[in-house]
Amino acid sequence: MKQIVDFIPLLLFFIVYKLEPRTFDVADLNVTVGGIFNATAVLIASSIIVYAALFVYQRRLEKSQWLTLAACLLFGGLTLALHSEAILKWKAPVLNWLFALAFTGSHFIGEKPLIQRMMGHAVQLQSAQWARLNIAWILFFLVCGFANLFVAFVYPSIWVDFKVFGSLGLTLLFMVGQGIYLVRHTQPKPEES
């Protein structure tokens, strides 16, 4: 459920971006709907609303959600302030690389890799398998970051489509692979007496 809610701002961004830019007169103001900059404003506003609602509902946000919100505000705000869509194109790669860095750092900081800290309560694996799974997440985030960067600057006409559907497809494909790995290597939890 949480992952679906996290995609709401991105989906709204996509819808507004795809609208043909039009200007309307509303109370003696010219309001433009559609295009990259209007979509960026919608992304920022919807992210604030979604994460505020999650915070009220859950009484907290996960670190990844705080990071996503901060990146949205920083890159989206700079995009609007400097009127440069290139800044927004860097958001997904930088965010993915920060996640890769966090997963990498967990191999050296703390007793458990980050993926084990996240999933250890639900899945029983040996230490070497947790390390391999954590490395898979590092590689996944690195590939996603480079793929987003490549599409954004080499194929800018499909960048938003890739950001929504390509990234989602890569994530689903990775999750299926992770699921297969977990099914093959998961050990039964020890019986509590």
Report on this model:
The model has no long low-confidence stretch (mean pLDDT 88). Helix 8 runs antiparallel to helix 9. It contains nine helices and two strands. A two-stranded antiparallel sheet has the order 1-2. The longest helix is centred in the C-terminal third of the chain and has 28 residues. By secondary structure, it is mostly helical.
Summarize the structure.
73% of the residues lie in helices and 5% in strands.
The spatial strand order of the largest sheet comes to 1-2
Mean pLDDT: 88
* Alpha plus pi helix count: 9
**How large is the share of residues in beta strands?**
5-15%
- Globally, the shape reads elongated
Total number of beta strands: 2
Order of helices and strands: HHEEHHHHHHH
Based on secondary structure, the structural category is mainly alpha
Q: Termini, distance in Å?
A: 33 Å
Main beta-sheet annotation: 2 strands, antiparallel
- Based on CA atoms alone, the radius of gyration comes out at 19 Å
Kindly report the oligomeric state of this protein: single chain
> What portion of residues is helical?
over 70%
How many domains would you count in the coordinates? Answer: 2
Instruction: Report the uncertain regions.
Output: none
